Amino acid sequence: MWSKCKRFFWEIGIYVVIAGVSSLLLIRYGISAYRIEGESMAPALLPGDRLFIVKTLAARRNLNRFDIVVCKLQGETNRPIIKRIFGLPGDRVDCAYGRWRINGKPTDQAIGGGCGLPSPQAWIIPVGHLFLLGDNQRYSRDSRSFGPIPTRLITGKAVFRYWPPARVGPLPKH
Length: 174
Hints:
CATH architecture: Ribbon
CATH superfamily: Umud Fragment, subunit A
CATH class: Mainly Beta
Number of domains: 1
Structural class: alpha+beta
Largest sheet: 8 strands, antiparallel
Radius of gyration: 21 Å
């Protein structure tokens, strides 16, 4: 009898350890939650919105223009930022007279506030870098101020809003 009881608790213990390690690995390397705190991505993302972020290597390698990503900037606060990918490696991104262009072509991307720059500017995006913009440029600190960022600083790709209930669903792609 004692050996059956001992075996039962041993097996339960193993399952608890496996579940715990699996959960930690999923949170660390798979999916995590993110809460929007500022207005830099309004109206697509509003303060208080809660998102699922996919952190797998595959998600970070499969980044496309206008995807929403989370990144950790070097020398910045410990709080990661969330922005939209606007320029890809090799692109020429410029803004003049309130209008954004990618490789010389005007973009239909709905970005609030025009360029938010005092004079026309252009950036060539180096290999291994991305140009990130907030949708609400009046309130966004983004690649306009810190330049293109290395892709290695991308910690995940935002894929799904789970809060508030009225706005649950996949994130908008412009």
